[in-house]
Amino acid sequence: MLDNTQVERLEAEAVNSAKTRQPLYAARKKIFPKRASGSFRRFKWLVMAITLGIYYLTPWLRWDRGPFAPDQAVLLDLANRRFYFFFIEIWPQEFYYVAGLLVMAGVGLFLITSTVGRAWCGYTCPQTVWVDLFLVVERAIEGDRNARMKLDAGPWTVRKLVLRVSKHAIWLVIGAATGGAWIFYFADAPTLAVELFTGTAAPVAYITVAVLTATTYTFGGLMREQVCTYMCPWPRIQAAMLDENSLTVTYNDWRGEPRSRHAKKVLAAGQPVGDCVDCNACVAVCPMGIDIRDGQQLECITCALCIDACDGVMDKLGRERGLISYATLSDYNANMTLATAGGSSSVNPSLVRAADGTFSDKVAHFHIRKIFRPRTYVYMAMWSLIGLGLLYSLLTRDRLEVNVLHDRNPQFVTLSDGSIRNGYTVKLLNMIPEPRTIVVTIQGLQGAEMSVVGMDLPVGRSVPISVEPDRLKMLKVFVRQPAGQIQGTAQTFKFRVEDKASFESDEYTATFNAPEIAR
User: Fold this and answer.
1) What is the C-alpha to C-alpha distance for residues 350 and 346, in angstroms, rounded to an integer?
2) How far apart are CA 423 and CA 426, in angstroms?
3) pLDDT score recorded for residue 184
4) Strands 449-452 and 490-499, how do they pair?
5) Pairing of the two strands 504-513 and 420-430
6) Between the CA of residue 24 and those of 27, 28, 31, 48, 226, what are the distances in Å?
7) Which among 187, 214, 213, 211 has a CA at the least distance from the CA of 201?
8) Bridge pairing between strands 471-481 and 420-430
9) DSSP labels for 56-82?
10) pLDDT tens-digit profile of 218-253?
């Protein structure tokens, strides 16, 4: 157990200070975040490993869809206008599924933000994940905070040049791997990888890799916190999602103030002293360069590394963890009221402690029930209803469709025997990766028969049509009705298509036109 003065004080100044706002066009001040250790840091390592693993490995997963469809589990096949996701296949006209997923993502982001603040930004945002990865490389090559600051301030030497070139080269490799993984989602990954490295891939593949390499390198290595501060709109939107019961990373100044590194002297003088020893550990580990003790700030991504740093200091001092913690505004205000005697005095930490030094029973602590409130239930209900609606639609959707277009000119033709003939373009859509025999039948239109142009099929009211897997087949169909059977200038009837093997069917209501004289 250490004394306050035995805790190392880091010379760390907040680059993005809530007290002094930087001009919008000020030159970037470099941030050298110190490596943190603790439960939140370990959780971030886990999230980084999972998210990067999903991104880089997903294109290589296989899914057997039979001989007539690609076997890549996740594939956006632009050439054939298909999106494959394991057992799900999405056609262009079913884009509403993608739109629904985007709406779910938006509502989910609102739900997460309203309950646990900017957890998305702090743990799973791609910018955060890749910056973490770039920082791992930087620390491995140049050392931790002090070593990097010393190297940056020092003159250019052979050692500095070698270290910087090595770091940036690895960053570029990571950027290229990022761009390479992205293009694998749009074509068969093993095939495209061979083409990519043999120089036979399409030019657009190399252009995409080059663009994503440049953006990943720039955003993750050179701009870092500037992307979150100036480019991302979410810091400015998320405030509307928060309320007094939202969890945010909070400096509990009701127990931390007044700060002092000489607690014994201050207490001997009869003055109050808080738990904060002004060691600046929270500032040193912050990747956004802020001082959380200044309160909530636009730049804070709630990565909670300051919590780990502060908890480590509290452990050394033998004090309770949580000087910096996830807390709600309602709990914070209640504890501030207690520590200031209802607002009548400055913060006095002794007011929140019992005689034995433990926290008073009046101190408010967070409980998981507090985040479950009407707003949370509304977001959860919206998210669930959209998801259930998409799932129901997905499970009940038809994989066989028919669409019919009547010839515009001529609307009808009178044949030599007096019968009337109408022409139609019939589109049969087979939406499964297997060949099918589709029976096309006309229903209604008394006495009518149909014939298919270009196919040696008997004239009748029903004809079988072979349709290739995952294809649209267009037919030119003539429907003829004897003159004595015509009942008006415009009669409605149906084209019915059916797959006898799967019992799937679809119908389209069409119009048969005839002249007045044919009555």
Assistant:
1) 12
2) 10
3) 95
4) unpaired
5) unpaired
6) 9, 10, 17, 31, 11
7) 187
8) antiparallel
9) HHGGG-B----TTS--BSEEEETTTTE
10) 999 999 999 998 899 888 888 888 888 999 999 999
H-only helix segments in 340-424: 374-396
Cβ atoms 302, 296 nearer than 8 A: no
| Number of residues in the chain | 519
CB atoms within 10 A of CB 75: 23
Query: What is the token pair recorded at 375?
Result: 């707003």
HSE toward the beta carbon, residue 193, CA cutoff 13 A:
10
Which residues face 312 on adjacent strands?
Answer: none
280 conformational bin, left if phi > 0, alpha if psi -120 to 50, beta if neither:
left
Cis peptide before 515 (omega within 30 of 0): no
Instruction: DSSP for 106-155, please give it.
Output: HHHHHHHHHHHSSHIIIII-HHHHHHHHHHHHHHHHH-SHHHHHHHHHSP
Structure tokens at 36: 């943190």
- Residues 429 and 462 sit within 8 Å (Cβ to Cβ): no
Q: Residue 489: phi, psi to the nearest 5?
A: -75, -20
**Tell me, what amino acid is at 66?**
G
Residue 37 has pLDDT above 60, yes or no: yes
Q: Can you read off the two tokens belonging to residue 142?
A: 């140049």
In contact, 197 and 242? CB cutoff 8 Å: no
Pick from 57, 173, 97: nearest CA to 386: 97
Give the count of beta carbons closer than 10 Å to the beta carbon of residue 88. 11
| Greatest pairwise CA separation for the chain in angstroms | 119
Predicted pLDDT at 517: 61
Bridge-partner residues for 492, per DSSP?
511
SS3 at position 224: coil
Residue 128, exposed/middle/buried by CB under 10 A (0-12, 13-18, 19+)?
buried
Among 25-29, 380-384, 500-504, top mean pLDDT goes to 380-384
Write the single-letter amino acid at 394: L
Which residues does 32 contact at the CB level (< 8 Å), separation at least 6?
145, 148, 149, 152
Residue found under tokens 């504890």? 335
User: What distances in angstroms separate CA 441 from CA 177, 422, 431, 515, one per listed residue?
Assistant: 54, 16, 20, 25
Give the phi and the psi of residue 479 in degrees, each rounded to 5.
-115, 125
For 97, half-sphere exposure in the C-beta direction (CA atoms, 13 angstrom radius) is 18
Q: What pLDDT, in 10s, does the model give residues 124-182?
A: 999 999 999 999 999 999 999 999 999 999 999 999 999 999 999 999 999 999 999 99
| The two structure tokens encoding residue 429 | 């859509």
Closest-CA residue to 445 (of 415, 479, 402): 479
User: pLDDT tens across 205-214, in order?
Assistant: 999 999 999 9
The answer to whether residues 122 and 303 touch, using CB atoms and an 8 Å cutoff, is yes
Residue 516 has φ and ψ, to the nearest 5°, of -60, -40
What are the residues facing 249 on neighbouring strands? 326
